[in-house]
Amino acid sequence: MVQWLILVFLLLPGGYRAEAAADPRTLTIGITQYPATLHPNIDSMAAKSYVLAMTRRPLTEYDTEWQPRCFLCTELPTFENGLAKEVRNPEGGRGVALTYTIRPEATWGDGTPVSTEDVLFTWEVGRHPQSGVANAEMYRRIYKIEVIDEKTFTVFDEKLTFQYNTLNDFRLLPAHLERPVFEADPATYRNRTLYDTDPTNPGLYFGPYRITELVSGSHIVLERNPTWYGREPWFDRIVVRAIENTAALEANLLSGEIDMIDGGLGMSLDQALAFERRNGDRFTVRYQPGLVYEHIDLMLDNPLLADRRVRQALLYAIDRQTLVEQLFAGRQPVADTNVHPLDWVHDPDVPRYRYDPERAAELFAAAGFRRDADGILVDAQGRRLSLELMTTAGNRTRELVEQVLQGMWRKAGVEITIRNEPARVFFGETVAKRKFTAMAMFAWISSPENPPRSTLHSEEIPSAENGWSGQNYTGYRNPEMDALIDAIEVELDRERRRELWSELQRLYATDLPVLPLYFRANPHIWPKWLEGVTPTGHQAPTTLWIENWRRRQ
Asked: How far out from the chain centre does Cα 68 lie?
């Protein structure tokens, strides 16, 4: 009885009532996270990307066919069309000059043209050591930008990489609005940005929709942007509702409070399988495999986890194959590294950690651990192998996985305590500022052949000194890994790059800075009347093509 009372309470979080749900021109979407910030370049969070993809367009991004293409720019630079040229960087190495033109009709929602002034300001913010942007390395690598006119500019990148002509992470900021806020105090800018203090300001957006209403932790309302230059969207109004409890999310769908559930931020696979059996006549359920890597980040500053043998033993001690078979009907493959089998650089011949409790015990013993009277491993200094495991609260599958892992590790002599937090706190504070003490379970969503600089390079460890930029939350430091990432990025020969990727995956699987779990297949759940939604299978959200969504006539 208590469970049902909780569900009823959760149906309308934050007091929001979806009176417009019956309006055929309103689409209400359910997701399990609320963005910790709406700033395009601060923090990395799938919920934020999902919402902002409806309000803006990237200069470039991978499309649904996994190929780079222009969105805000008019033509993708290549060496063949003359818009890309190899140059010598200031140190004499191989760099590249790339010329882009912003779509001439693109304007911010207040009518101000999207211009090269915005490009220069975004670059300034991204390069500032205290701005706190998540992709600072990309901005620092650009050593010069030449303005040709109000819409055209040339970027000078100090590295000629195999992804030389993509600026996927260069997310434009409105200079006419954000510059005064930034210049007042760059060190505290991340806490004062208009994206958080005045998020309904139309001048912050230039996509098909703009944000017109929001209640933190509850919902975000988007309405058509009258200055949008592209195809007119079919829906007048989009409502994104954050319901962190996945059981409540399903109840909201069945009750009609929401129309659909996003695949990357919605039901777990086991829920979706059961849901389809019961409601397949009312909803379309599509299982999209993709570059979504569920794993456990390890706090390598924790002395209990600093020894590689302990990390390897932790992985040998859990039966991931049984876990995915029993919880996900075998639809989600066990991960050996961070590279998905669908990605062309995947190497199947890396070290694997099949369930082997005897091998786990040997490694724990070699690392100096022995069981105490109550069966928990203790080292020579008397420290119990007691670790805290965290994830996003309310995600039923992750919480179930936690409990399964807790039981498996207990058999191996590892004491696991579970402490979960709402997604906006977990990602916005605990993970981003490296406040977790041992284990943080979540998923990375990546683009095809994505070098893991931000998550594995030693220069990308977030700290107060660098404004918490970077995504190497584990604190992993390995010169060999740094060298491999550096080499992969600048290797233009495809076959040689494959070899380097293989070396990286073998090192990753040996060092285990994180514990790989499985690759997710995201279940998208849509009403039968909705058409035009195309899952990508990579980090570009489906909402990047929101103007194609419509009610079937």
From this structure: 18
